[in-house]
Design goal:
The complex is a heterodimer of chains A (116) and B (107). With 116 residues, chain A is mainly beta. Helix content of chain A is 0%, strand content 50%. Chain A has strands at residues 3-7, 10-12, 18-25, 34-39, 45-51, 57-59, 67-72, 77-82, 91-97, 105-106, 110-114. In chain A, the strands form two sheets. In chain A, strands 2, 4, 5, 6, 9, 10 and 11 form a seven-stranded mixed β-sheet that branches. A four-stranded antiparallel β-sheet of chain A has the order 1-3-8-7, with no helix packed on it. The N and C termini of chain A lie far apart (40 Å). The model of chain A has no long low-confidence stretch (mean pLDDT 96). Chain B has 107 residues and is mainly beta. Chain B is 0% helix and 50% strand. Chain B has no helices and eleven strands. Chain B has strands at 4-7, 10-13, 19-25, 33-38, 45-49, 53-54, 62-67, 70-75, 85-90, 97-98, 102-106. In chain B, strands 2, 4, 5, 6, 9, 10 and 11 form a seven-stranded mixed β-sheet that branches. Chain B has a four-stranded antiparallel β-sheet with strand order 1-3-8-7, with no helix packed on it. In chain B, a hairpin with a 6-residue loop joins strand 4 (33-38) and strand 5. The N and C termini of chain B lie far apart (35 Å). The model of chain B has no long low-confidence stretch (mean pLDDT 95). Classes of the chains: A mainly beta (116), B mainly beta (107). Chain A binds chain B through residues 4, 43-47, 58, 60, 94, 96, 100-109, and chain B through 32, 34, 36, 38, 41-46, 49, 55, 87, 89-91, 94-101.
Chain lengths: 116, 107
């Protein structure tokens, strides 16, 4: 059974940093592209970033230059380093298995709150 | 980017009845549309892909249709566990974009 478990969310001040992790199990992690998708309070889903199995990285314009996606295939873990955080980055962040879609597996999400 | 517009925003239907959810793309996305079900505190669940193919383990009461710019998710014989928010997503054009969601409520 595929499992994706996010961690690392929390409360951070504007301009601060956080590192999210997503621990994967139940599939050959290195064979698959992985993505981060977020949902702001009361809003819909928004793709944030993805990384291919070969390490190619892509970002939404709203986070480009501030967020960095990475993966450690030896640990079956996906990361999202978030710097220069803004209030509008407040959201539940999900990791999902896949590049652009379809995302056939999702984690339960981790909440990031950017507030002073 | 391709804008996905879902309607209605909220749909109230009685258990046992049929719900029809719509999704329209601002430009052609071929068949590259998926539907997800999202419940509070959980990650979204893939229902259909390639517009009409059910994902593994998805009951036959869920069916997707459409191509090009107009897509529909139909849920027949609604059960209590089906009341949730539903999102369409296109992945034909970069970046993959989601609709704003349809909340399916119990009438």
């Amino acid at each position: 059974e595929v499992q994706l478990v996010e961690s690392g969310g929390g409360l951070v001040q504007p301009g601060g940093s956080l590192r999210l992790s997503c621990a994967a199990s139940g599939f050959t992690f290195s064979d698959y592209a992985m993505s981060w998708v977020r949902q702001a309070p009361g809003k819909g889903l928004e793709w944030v970033s993805n990384i291919s199995g070969s390490g190619d990285k892509y970002y939404a314009d709203t986070v480009k230059g501030r967020f960095t996606i990475s993966r450690d295939d030896s640990k079956n873990t996906l990361y999202l380093q978030m710097n220069s955080l803004r209030a509008e980055d407040t959201a539940v962040y999900y990791c999902a298995k896949g590049l652009l879609g379809p995302y056939d597996s999702w984690g339960q999400g981790t909440l990031v709150t950017v507030s002073s | 980017e391709t804008v996905m517009t879902q309607s209605p925003a909220t749909l109230a239907v009685s258990p046992g009845e049929t719900a029809t959810l719509s999704c329209r793309a601002s430009q052609s996305v071929s068949w590259n549309v998926v539907w997800y079900q999202h419940k509070p505190g959980q990650g979204p669940r893939l229902l259909t892909y390639d517009a009409s193919t059910r994902a593994a383990g998805i009951p036959a009461r869920f069916s997707g249709s459409g191509s090009g710019t107009t897509f529909t998710l139909t849920i027949t014989g609604l059960q209590s566990e089906d009341f949730a928010v539903y999102y369409c997503q296109q992945f034909n054009n970069w970046p993959g974009t989601f609709g704003q969601g349809t909340k399916l409520e119990i009438k």
